[in-house]
Amino acid sequence: MDKSSQVNEVYKLLKKIYPKAITFLDYKSPFQLLIAVVLSAQTTDAQVNKVSPVLFEKYPDPKALMESKIEDVEKIIRSTGFYKVKAKNITGAAKKLYLDYNSEVPIDMDDLITLPGVGRKSANVVRAHCFNESAIIVDTHFSRVTKRIGLTNSVKPEVIERDLLLITNKTIQTDFSMIINTHGRKICMARKPLCGECVLSSICVFYN
Ligand code: SF4
What we know:
This protein has about 210 residues and is an all-alpha fold. Helix 5 (about 70-75) crosses helix 6. The chain contains eleven helices and no strands. It binds iron/sulfur cluster. Iron/sulfur cluster binds near residues 148, 188, 198, 201 and 206.
């Protein structure tokens, strides 16, 4: 089976058990999703969802967040870890949005990755979920699962993204990213993957 066919097969099998792709971060606008994704580095989405309502209640837009006292922001986001760096990044991103983009989140990858704390993964999340752009979203779960099932040999996110873009139909890229992510969280965990319960076991390189 070539790799494109393998992607289609994996998608078909996983779609049956995850019919609706789930977004794990809570948000009400591109600005909120952008900030939430930056906060989600090195922590769980559930943890971010606990602090983000407080943060957005107090700072509802880029201008408000830009003008915040950084100590106040640090206090709110402290439980997400690396809070000093994250506070600097999100206030910096808010400032750039306000000054350079009229408080709107830009759609272009080249613009998004100039915002402090925003890498390709975060940019792809925003592009996919807020602007309906097709995207391969490479996070830790996606990297692990795609490598195990033999869709890439790389551990470098940018190479994995490129590999998967080449073999995944544009119409399913975002959904494929989401269901692989979900499978990584629920079945193909880092330490003890539940291979005995996995619908991909017959075609998984790691398992066979
Ligand atoms: S068979 Fe095991 S390693 Fe392969 S995708 Fe399933 S859970 Fe992951």
